[in-house]
Amino acid sequence: MKRVLLICALAACGKGGKAGDKGDGSAAGGPREDLLAAWKSAGLAPAGFAAAKDSPVGKDCQLGTVNSVEVLVCSFTSADEAKAAQDTGLKWVGDTTGISTPKGTLLIVAADRKKADPTGSTINKLMK
Amino acid sequence: MRRTSVLVVLALAASSVALASDEHHHFGKQVRFVGIHPIPKNEGGGICNIEGPHVHIYIANKLEYRDHSGDAYFVGDPVAYKYDGPKYAYKGPHPIHVEAVVGGDPDVEYCYLEGPHFHYFKPAPTEIDADFKVVGDAYFYVGEPPHVFIDARPAYVGINAQYRPLAYARPVVEVEAPSGWIGARAEFLTPGVIVETPGVYVEERGHGRGRGHGAVVVGGDTVFGGGIDVHIAAPPPPSIHIGVGIGVSGGVGGEVHGGGRGHGRH
Asked: Whose CB has fewer CB within 10 Å in chain A, the N or C terminal residue?
């Protein structure tokens, strides 16, 4: 009986990796979460980051906004893979100001579709 | 009032570098940039502060930008466009090691601004001692200019005509130029040759490299019509460049040195 309870408890804790969820789509640990935390420390306001369904850029992407700029953060298994996805990221940006910048195993893709960042200051901070 | 003429900018069109390379991908109307640069007035004006590679949907003009591995890199004076960050004073034409400013492959491009002007970067550390002298808080290029620097001058010296009427705080450099300064060399004292014949430069849209079709030009006027862009530009004043003193209009001094955007990719 104890063994059954233990298994149930472990299963509940592991479900969806919600432990440490900070409520903004980020969770403790991992390069992507570290990145979002660094943006916050830099005075940016990442918001609404959640899994991006069927993203053309990568299989493991989160979509959200940073100071009203649309941002996609995709995680890859290697830095080379992240770099190889750069062009796909630019395609996702489309006809607007944007970036597709690899950072380690992550690819940061930003598109200023609402013209919220006319001088590029927010986007520049995303690349730091 | 500025007299507007219709020009065929044959010389510039023929001699300017292609800012986009087919091997570098861009999508739709995207144009690739790297480093800070002016934003066209009709896109809001001011300075784009994105230091790394990025895209916009407007094009870069051929006098103020150079191709750096497929990205348009600004070689003009950002202060003319209300840039208020760290800046460094230069006098006269000089090389720019682009990779030292924004990273990427080794790439030497050339600035042809003849009078005192600013950049947001200082010369690469490797060339400061060898090719530049600092006098009066300004960098003077005293190296031996390579042929490509001299040969390309006619294509780019028109940037001086573009900047001359701009009212902004240029650096004040009142010291005597050091020995060997490029501005005193015969190749840079002779009048710049700009072959410009009045006429119309018509660019077809929807063809070519896909760079900036339907977009705008930074500087100069652009008229759109049907499936073509008709560029109308005022002719620059007679192109007589004598090196020292040209383009030294205005000037209330400027902060130089210290805390500039550095070398290496950000």
From this structure: N
